[in-house]
Amino acid sequence: MNLPTQERILERAAGPGVAVLALGLLLIILQAAGLAFWQGFVINIGIFLILVLSLNLSNGFTGVFSLGHIGFMALGAYTSAILTLPLHEKQEYLPNLPTWLAGTHFDFRLGSFPVGFLAATLIAALLVSLVALLVGLVLMRLSGHFVAVATLGFLVIIRVLLFNADNLTRGSRTFSNVTPYTNLWWVWAWALLTIYIVWRVKQSPMGRAMYAQREDRWSAQSIGIEVMPPRLFAFVVSAFFTAVAGSLYAHFITSFSPTVFYFDLTFKVITMLVVGGMGSVSGSIVGTVLIVGLSEALRRIEDPTQLYGISGIVLAVLFILIIIFRRDGLLGQREIALDRLFMKGGGTGGEPYITNAD
Amino acid sequence: MNIVFYSLQQLVNALSIGSLYALMAVGLAMVFSILRLINFAHGDLIMVAAYFAAFALLAKLPLGVTILLMIGGAVLVGLLMERVAYRPIRGAPDVAALLTSFAVGQILQNGTLLVTRLMQKPNPLAFPVIGALSGVFTFGAITIPRVNVVSLGLGIVLLVLLSLFVTRTDLGLSMRAAAEDLPAARLMGIDTNRVIATAFGIGSGLAAVAGLLFAVQAGQLTPYMGFTPVLKAFIAAVIGGFGSISGAIVGGYALGGLEVLLTAIPGIGDILPPNMVSPGVQAWLKQWLPSSLTSYRDAFVFVVLILVLLFRPNGIVGRREREEMG
């Protein structure tokens, strides 16, 4: 096997580098042209991409299917939004906050850069990771559809708590006036980080352990691969990024209520994941762009005709067709190997990618 | 209020809500036992049945015709979803099947939304009042909504009929054989497609009855109203022991009891007669079990579900499973 020489490393980095540059160029054009609709559209894709990749890390890589991730998103959204809410808004909207929270406002800036938003997002994400660790210690012991239903139970529990924690969340009333920090750059910086991390996890020993225990837990255990560590690791890391997506979302739409974070959103993210292919990073990207684009197009039909429901039906039918005719999604577990794009000799020296789609 | 009457009233409430859960849970359990499919669209079937009933009543059809139409419609939809969505994915991994049922549910919800829109009906739709099911019964000091009593009675009658069907008829025996071992049942010459269709048909019919009673209690319909009932039915089935009909029935009543307890116990300090317990206990009850806890009921119920999944995955009456879940 070839040792990765300087030249080869450059060759491998060229593909992803070009992709990132192209994305940057697109964002600059969008920013400069000020096309509000398309900016919102691309921000939406970015947020969903983070959600789908996180879900892929937990559900696709380990096979432990969680339906509770949107609960993590909700926790991330509320936590960071409470932290960044200006003090006078807090007095008005959340008069019963504990005093230490009521006096906290993450509006620190470094020049014009809102460090406070970054800090609030990180704090929210770390807090949610901790919750995920505790929940995971209990739930990751289950598998198959039992874990799916138990995590769905987690989603319901979070919803009940959000509705009842009046002092922190305003209960069923809308949580509004969140500072609109989120923009193209925030979203896509986080999205690129998520892609990179999830990709690295997939190629890492931990990632291989995730696949191994998913394919056959008894064989995996017999060669010394434990079941719980990879599952927990995936669950916690994916909860972290899901919470980040929640924070970005909160500071993007600026007003929301617990009803947003429920089953419809869960199903939408799962659709993107399944259409793209569980276990494939590039599949998640393809699935997300495709479904966000399709729903937007369908919404354009729904809005003028007032025939609400069409988009839901089309997406669900598409979902069933994919499960019947192409169960592994568009890409299965394969990847579009950007790192081989500029490799001489078709990149035969690259690592073999996993193609054990069953 | 007298604590004895209060308890009696809560008992009837528990049995009546338990009957509804049992009616819904047996459909889930029958399908699960044969196909290992958790059919989440079962809840949307309840919703669709309630809409059939509402449209029939709004068209001024008599109650008997309404019920026939409702059950017929629900059975048809149930058979259709089996034929179109579930048969092609038979043998797929558990999770793929579960996700398909979510998609089927989405189609039913959005389809209902679209139809009500096209028929220019409001959303939510007020459920027409049914004379036979409205009002209350009064027994001495207790008053019980009539619909609760009907739920209880109807639930017991239908569940007994179902038990007779499963134990005394050929088709029922075939169904149990298929639940035991589907490939072996096929080898024994059992028409498994027919058995599976029967399970979907019966489950849908029972769900329709539950849907009507549920709609009468709720008073209004939305396309999304099926989500909570199916979760509850699922919990009932798991508590009882998933995959067995008797388990689903036991679980339904157990869940009904649990929910009524969770509703009745918080705030009990406020309604206890003055001299029943010492003032200290009463103050303790008021402090630690305030009536505001009631709004956390569903969270507690799901905690129970998770505990059952973890510690007693075979439920109350579940047989020892051949395969393990961990």
Description:
The complex is a heterodimer of chains A (358) and B (326). Chain A has 358 residues and is mostly helical. Chain A has one domain. Chain A has 15 helices and no strands. Chain A is globular and about 55 Å long. Chain A starts with 5 loop residues before the first helix and ends in a 33-residue tail after the last helix. In chain A, 46% of the residues are buried. The C terminus of chain A is likely disordered. In chain B, the strands form two sheets. Chain B has a two-stranded antiparallel ribbon with strand order 1-4. A two-stranded antiparallel sheet of chain B has the order 2-3. In chain B, strand 2 and strand 3 form a beta hairpin. The termini of chain B are far apart.
Provide a brief overview of the structure:
Chain A is mostly helical and 358 residues long. Chain A is 70% helix and 0% strand.
The first-to-last residue Cα distance of chain B is 48 Å
Give helix % range of chain B: over 70%
> How many helical stretches of chain B?
13
Spell the H/E element sequence of chain B: HHHHEEEHHHHEHHHHH
Mean pLDDT over the full residue set of chain B? 86
Please give the radius of gyration of chain A in angstroms: 21 Å
**What's the tally of helices of chain A?**
15
Biggest sheet character of chain B: 2 strands, antiparallel
Count the domains of chain A. Answer: 1
Secondary-structure class of chain B: mainly alpha
Features:
A: 358 residues; mainly alpha; 70% helix; globular; B: mainly alpha; 13 helices; 4 strands; disordered C terminus
